[in-house]
UniProtKB/TrEMBL annotation:
Keywords annotated in UniProt: Hydrolase, Membrane, Metalloprotease, Protease, Transmembrane, Transmembrane helix
Species in which this protein is naturally found: Aphanothece hegewaldii CCALA 016
One Gene Ontology molecular-function label: endopeptidase activity
This protein's record includes keyword ATP-binding: no
GO biological process: CAAX-box protein maturation; proteolysis
CAAX prenyl protease 2/Lysostaphin resistance protein A-like domain ranges (all copies): 93-181
Transmembrane region(s): 17-38, 50-71, 115-137, 144-162
Protein name, UniProt field: CPBP family intramembrane metalloprotease
Amino acid sequence: MSSSDNPEFEPLTRKQILIIMGVTAVILLLVARIWQYFGSIKILDVQFSLQAVWLSLALAFGISLGSGLMYRIWPAYRQSADTYLELVIKPLVWPDLIWLGLLPGLSEELLFRGVMLPALGLDLTAVIVSSCLFGILHFSGSQQWPYVLWATVVGLVLGYSAMVTGNLLVPTLAHIVTNLVASYLWKARQSLNPPSL
């Protein structure tokens, strides 16, 4: 992507993307831990069970299906998602996509669902507030509002799953799988259909 294709973004290198992902994850983890410490917040438990894994996979499937549907029927979302994904995924090589699944999935879920939900009351209002903030975290430019809107909806789904189950594993695993599926599918589509010059 060149600045002539989208003047709002300059292309980033693979190294820059990996550094940004790592630094962002560390910052989110630090914010979560500091908030937890000073707020005396008990984070949501992580409870490993087959039921939690299946629920996580079902959520990831539903979110991925919803995203695919939005991508097909809403041109503004398709353009927003392509811009964001091209900026983030295009410079990465296939094994890097594992980090794209793990780092945001772990750090964002610890902060937004693990710490923020209990801190705000672990109720529907907390889910809405944390989801709006989660959506804002995905803001990367004025043309990206459809992507922010979708991230907010995803935050509502993940937050609600955390509130209902009381298990941080459910939204975390769903988030990781969703990121992996979206990034691998987008990269595969770009490999099969390279843009013409």
